[in-house]
Structure formats: C-alpha cells, structure tokens
Amino acid sequence: MRKIHRCFTLLEVVVSLAILSIGLAGFLQLMMGSQKRIAESVDRWTRMHMLTQAAEYFMLQNEDPGGIPERFFPYPAYQAVAYYEDAEGLPDEYNNLDNQLPLKRLVIELRKDGKVLDKLIIDRISYESTAAGE
Description:
Layout: H1 10-59, E1 79-86, E2 103-112, E3 115-125, H2 128-133
C-alpha cells in the first residue's frame, strides 16, 4: 500500500503569505496612526497644562498682568504672555447696568520662538474701575 502525503502546494503557501502580509501591513498602519494620535494628545495636554499654570498665576495678579516669574512657569523654551481685551458678544441687556463692574477678557497665549502655539481666554470681572475710584 502506498501512503499519500497531503502537502500544501506552492500556490496555497503564496496566497496564505500574501493574506498574512496584508493583515500585518494593516496592523502596523493602525499602530503608527495610534502612536501619532497619542503624541499629539500628549502635546495638547502639555500645552494646556502650561496655559492653566500661567492662568492660575495671572488670575491672582492685578489688571496689568506683566510677566511671569520662572519659578511659577519653569519652561525655558516657552513664554506665557497675558493681556486684557474688552469682552465682546454680550447681550445688550447685560451691558451698562447700575452697579455693574465691567467684564474683561484675560487672554493668555503660549508662545515658542515668537509663534503662538495655543491660547486661553478667560472672562473676568475688572476691578480696575473700583480701585481707581477709591
């Protein structure tokens, strides 16, 4: 009696390798995309952390925010710049009310090499007029 050996043909092996390589290529592409999204998320989180750290400092300052000392903002490659703007877009019924303090916007920009990376805007009551009236 003869034994029949069942083996894979060359065509079956090539097709299975092709399917395996397509699957691996898709998996690697997904992994690279997820790593890129993770890196972008870390950068966004880091910028927002720096902005909130600067916001905590500037919210405790007077109307002229000035600069921020290095001990409060220990990121030598970055700058936190703050300035005030008039608040815009408020409904008319909220403007010019009796005994109402004006609302201003505290704009904090995170800069690196002079380029604005991110911005945080905080609406804040202006106590400048009450201090000037005293």
